[in-house]
Write the structure tokens for this entry.
Amino acid sequence: AQSVTQLGSHVSVSEGALVLLRCNYSSSVPPYLFWYVQYPNQGLQLLLKYTSAATLVKGINGFEAEFKKSETSFHLTKPSAHMSDAAEYFCAVSDQGNTPLVFGKGTRLSVIA
Amino acid sequence: GAVVSQHPSWVICKSGTSVKIECRSLDFQATTMFWYRQFPKQSLMLMATSNEGSKATYEQGVEKDKFLINHASLTLSTLTVTSAHPEDSSFYICSAPTLAGGPSYNEQFFGPGTRLTVL
């Protein structure tokens, strides 16, 4: 069975500081990995995805993530946080594109002015 | 990218009534759709897999007689919450994978969600 662990339910950074949201996965097959962002009372927006191509994945809004098989990690980073980045972030895994996603518990990102 | 819509976006109903939520793939065909539930300040949990032309597959602990799923066409899946109670109040989100080629291959597209409040 697949699973995702997001370390830290709440991360707080200063505006302009590095954002690092951690995600570790467990999968018996090569995984497809995703990061989604959710603003209050809204649906999910895809930030980026890993589907066995390049290990460093660039997404929208300046976010990127690196797939590290040896560490079973897929951490999300952004060099400089903006106030508009404050939201809930979910890491998710699937074993194929047409199978349901397994989500982590989410990390709430706060950005302090 | 592909678009998935949900209707209604929010609904308030009385305890004991039934509520139907629609999930539509607007510009692609979806033989499979997934229904998730998200309680406040929690993650998304898969409820069921909706398959066009066949019975839905429910996750353990999800009552299939309470959460009726119908996938009558390649673009529409419906979730009916029967005899809703306050504990069914939640955010319900559907998703549909696209198997078409191109950059969206193997990507799932999520609807905007439906907020259900049962009084």
Observations:
- Chain A has a mean pLDDT of 93.
- Chain A touches chain B at residues 32, 36, 41-44, 46, 49, 51, 90, 94, 96-106 (CB under 8 Å).
